[in-house]
Amino acid sequence: MTKIKSPYISRVKIKNFRNFKDIDVNLSHKQVIIGENNVGKTNFLKAIQIILDPKFSDEDRFLNESDFYDGLVEPMKNGEIIEIIIEIRGYEHNKTVLSMLSDATISENPPTLRLTYKFFPSQDTNEYTYTIFQGDRPEVQFTHFHRKFLNIKVINAIRDVESEMRNSRKSPIKNLLRDYEFDKDELEDIGAKLKEQSNEILSIDELIDLEKKINNRFINTMGNQSFSKISLETIDVDPNRILNTLKLMIGEEKQRPTSDTSLGINNILYISLILISLEDKTIPTLLKKENYIELSEESDSEILEECYVKSSKGNYFLKDNLDDGLMLKLYSFMDNYSLSKEGFTILAIEEPEAHLHPSFQRIIYKDVMKNNTSVLMTTHSPYITSVAPLNSIVHLRTTQEGTIINTTADLNLSDKEKQDLERYIDVKRGEIYFGKGVILVEGIAEEYLIPAFAEILGKPLDLKGIICCNINSTNFDPYVKFLDMLGIPYVCITDGDYYAWVKEKEEPKRKYHIVVDDSHISNGYLGLERIGDLLVKLQKINNSSLPKDLDEQEELFAKNGFFIGYYTMEVDIMDACSESNQGKDIICNIFNELTTGGERQKENFKRELNSGDYWSCLRKIENCENEVGKGRFAQRLSLMCIKDHIPKYIENAIDYIYSKIEEVGKYE
Amino acid sequence: MNSTYLEKLEQIKKDKDQFAAFNSNCSTVVKAGPGSGKTTVLTLKIMKLLNDKIKYPRGLACLTYNREAVKEFTNRLYELGYVKRNNVFLGTVHAFCIAEVISPFAHLYDYDIPLPLKIVSEKEKNKLFKDTVIQLNYDPNQIKIIDMDKERTLGIEGISCVSVEPYDIGLKVAKEYENRLHAMGMVDFIDIVKYATLLIQKEEYVRKCLEAKFPWILIDEYQDLGKPLHEMVLSLFHKTNIKIFAVGDPDQSIYGFNGAIPDYLNELYSSPNIEAIELKTNYRSHQDIINASIIGLNQQNRNYVSGKRFDKDAEFHFITCEEEMDDQYKEVAYSIIPSCQQKGIPLEEICVLVHSEKQIQSMRKILDEANIPYYISKLEFKRSDIVIWLEQCALWVISNSNVSFSSLFDYWNNLLQKHNQTITAERNILERKRLYSILKESIKHFKSLYKWLEFLIKNLKLHSILYDSDIYPDEVDNLNALIKVAKDGSFRDFDITRFANLGKPINQITLSTRHSSKGLEFEVVILLGMEQGNFPYYKNENDPEKLAEERRVFFVSISRAKRVCYLLRSKKYTRKTRFGYKTFNYKPSMFWEELYESKKNLGTTVN
Description:
The complex is a heterodimer of chains A (668) and B (607).
Chain A: E1 8-17, E2 20-26, E3 30-34, H1 41-52, H2 58-61, E4 82-89, H3 95-101, E5 105-108, E6 111-121, E7 128-134, E8 137-141, H4 144-147, E9 150-155, H5 161-166, H6 172-178, H7 184-202, H8 205-222, E10 249-250, E11 256-257, H9 263-278, E12 286-287, H10 289-296, H11 302-307, E13 308-310, E14 316-318, H12 324-336, E15 344-350, H13 358-370, E16 375-378, H14 382-385, E17 393-399, E18 402-407, H15 415-427, E19 437-441, H16 444-456, H17 461-464, E20 466-470, H18 477-486, E21 490-494, E22 498-504, E23 507-511, E24 523-525, H19 526-537, H20 550-559, E25 562-564, H21 569-576, H22 581-594, H23 599-611, H24 614-622, H25 630-640, H26 648-665
Parallel strand pairs in A: 3-16, 3-17, 9-15, 15-16, 19-20, 19-21, 21-25
Antiparallel strand pairs in A: 1-2, 1-4, 4-6, 5-6, 6-7, 7-8, 10-11, 12-14, 13-14, 17-18, 22-23, 22-24
Helix pairs in contact in A: 6-9, 16-25, 19-20, 21-24, 22-23, 22-25, 23-24
Chain B: H1 3-13, H2 16-23, E1 28-32, H3 38-53, E2 60-64, H4 67-79, E3 88-92, H5 93-105, H6 122-135, H7 145-154, H8 168-183, H9 189-202, H10 204-213, E4 216-219, H11 226-239, E5 243-248, H12 262-269, E6 275-279, E7 281-282, H13 287-297, E8 305-306, E9 315-323, H14 324-342, E10 350-354, H15 357-370, E11 374-376, H16 385-398, H17 405-418, H18 425-441, H19 449-459, H20 462-466, H21 475-488, H22 496-500, E12 509-513, E13 522-527, H23 544-558, E14 561-577, E15 580-585, H24 590-602
Parallel strand pairs in B: 1-5, 1-6, 2-3, 2-4, 4-5, 7-8, 9-14, 10-12, 10-13, 11-12, 13-14
Antiparallel strand pairs in B: 14-15
């Protein structure tokens, strides 16, 4: 409706709670919590719920020994303390929240509220007790009074949407109806008319006959007692309950009640209704006559006329498509003379993907991500993560020190980089989030071959949950930053792109696509230079400690997880198998199989391969007339390759990522 | 809706000015003359705002001048059906500054505000002031602490165009005093209001939060509140959507020595975008009394009309005594009061107004001799928050229907927390039980206020809680003063019922200084010391501003009366001079003369 976003949890600190020893993370307006099963996603939500969920009872907030961090021995005997701190931002536009929670302010730039939960032994009795307080002021408690205006609603993973929709008390549509102030007289009037209309049916002879029959039967059995008069009645016309008869129907032509539609559709409907009910209602979409008149008395009320249009019944509807400036003005007007006394609810959905087809997941959650309500969700769905804003990821990982959390709220990328990365994640359906380790590669050939090489080396990638991400360029920068933030181990494999300086028309120029030759007096590797620049830029190494010697450089980069070849991967593969006839035969056979060229060309290829003229071989693979292509070649090679094909730097990279993951894996 | 509310509502509907003030929906200034029912309007307005206009959890703030007023106010609201709710602040300006501005926000900014607030005790403050004056080589007779404090409040900058000539010595002392005080990590009450004003002026977030909590701020007795509050109000009025509802009477502004002058209220009254309302009907006094008070004021356009019917005529008595104040005291005790009693006027409808504390003490002696019971509105101790709480406790002990135990406990709990005691959920229950049983047990001492106080103070460990208190630095001394009064002072015969009803005379005449008489009303008012040179004080006669304030004091004094006024003067006073004791003839005060002239011309009853 407007661009005004609801408050959100901007920071969470947890100490000694369940699987969290000591975590402190920043969050953004939407939070997508990912991590393997049993890593503690639900506990993370629970920590927030202890402070914010109005459905929790005092007893729920009163923790016990089993709620302490698993690594603590006899925590209650040793007087350990559980502490949960959450900070809230994005609330300052709303007077309801400000008026209830300004005591919790810890900073005004940006405005930030803090709430602290503590479970601790009391000084007097040594018995454990808990407190929730505001800001830095332990004497100012955060209670249900305050929680009414800032809270969280959790939709659990295991939910029975159908029964909730049917349940007249809990049904979200009933909640929405309750938000309106219906005119009693109007309802009564309609009720009476309905009754009148429907009573006509009772005058049908068939029904008169039926009623008589039933009554005769009944009186025969029961005797003539006061309760033995049976009559047919039509619908419930109690004006208070007439609204309860409203039902949601789905479908354009063939309407069906929600109970007859698929679980998936019902889930979407359910979540949509919840989102409507959580919307910021400061600006009413419908203004009752009397409220409109009352508001008109205010001195700055001319905005009402601009924004509302009178309905045929004399009430006022908010106009559609008002521009943002006007909406902001209206918001502050309404906020000031607030009719709405509602606060804000942060929504948490566990596994929102339940029962939803992937394409629905994407459509629905693309929309949810744009919603003004702050939403937290735990998910295993790549379809949801793929549409999540980059800065919304909350990644949980098990370590020896308990579960640690990495978040991307503070991700600092240029708009271009952000677009690239977002697009990549969208297209690749968020696979990057689900790897325990990631191998970043620059092209399709690597994407095919590296998993195959790993297999040959006895280190299959799938076994360790390693994902090979082809970023289709050498711009590793945003990916590396992002993976660092997420705390996912990674290696980066890239071409060396050997070159030598030559003179062309008196100008010194780099010459590429050549093999090392003693005649090259001055040479270098573009790959090394690129990675060197990247590592310096990311402050992983500093410029002055960058060694001059290229071998030393290579070694230093490898320590940081960057592995660089000599030329380009295909050439490096050919080079690797220069001593292996079997290896070379396989390459020749694949070329021969794939090319549309004649015998002569195949001969040449073989000759060049044997003589070490690998660049010529590669050109033949790449030449579009031959219809081979690097991708197709790599695809085929990945099925036939042997150990001899594996360049050393790739082997090193695979060893590196494997050992990284085993290091982490030890604690799981 | 509560029946008292509806009844009062009907009542004010009959007065179009009152009703306009009640209904105003924008910032409003109400000039409310004596007896014009301002408290009724203000309390009804609060109820209307809370019931109709302001949606929970937002609320409002109502600021008054002193704690007695707060108590009176809160009781009136409860009678009108007020139910305690969040974000409704009823209290003094100081309490507002601490609870709503400094505590929640000062730590967010860097204004060198010593935190947590440690308030200097009066004793320390006096000493620091004296040291400062000596250090700066000023003559201690040249400057009093009140002069310095006045300069300090005037030092606040802001939007107001009212200018006051600064007092140079006062300024210099003020600066040095503040430096020293802050170096000690302490503040005084003037600092608190200054800091709060500064935060409101400078920090948008602070204003925003206040606006969120309090869409309306109502202020009573605006004329007494001085410059800092005025700047605070102007800042909120100009920079937020908060609506201001200020009530006051420039003619009753008599605290000029504090820096409170009528100009601030007048400035607000004439601001654009402010609805200006004047309550002109006086529901207290006879028209003749009203006219007499206006004569003393010597101002144009005061057209107050009496709204009350009297069976009897107004009376003015001009009584000339022979010598000294003593003759006047005796006249009061042996002639005036007995004659009033003869006419069937109850003692609590009689008030004697004198110039000073000292005169009160002298008057007391004579009243004691004459066996006339009296009540002194100004006590030997302060009716501090804690004393008022003790009064409430006494009230609960004797009849627990008038006050709720929860509200007593809330204050107690708050007091403990403010004194660094962490109150967990269980501790809360234990403390609640403890307070309950101590109060219940204290009933056994109900006949003796002294024993009851001692029992309570000892069992609640009040002294150790308040020892070295940051926020109540004077409270241990104050409680000791109270104990002393109860043990062998004027309260020595009190039971706790009497203590619970402190603040109201019971079959007693009231004895007060002219300044402290504000807000009171009596059938008969007796004004002593009406000689030239004494009232107005001779030094003020030629200073137009100071004379105007003396006139306002006279206005306030006369307007306490519903029907009868006595003015007393003595012909001769003996004073110590350079040449030994000398007796001087004293002429009547100019107020006496003016009033006497007008009465004579109108032919009203003059004795």
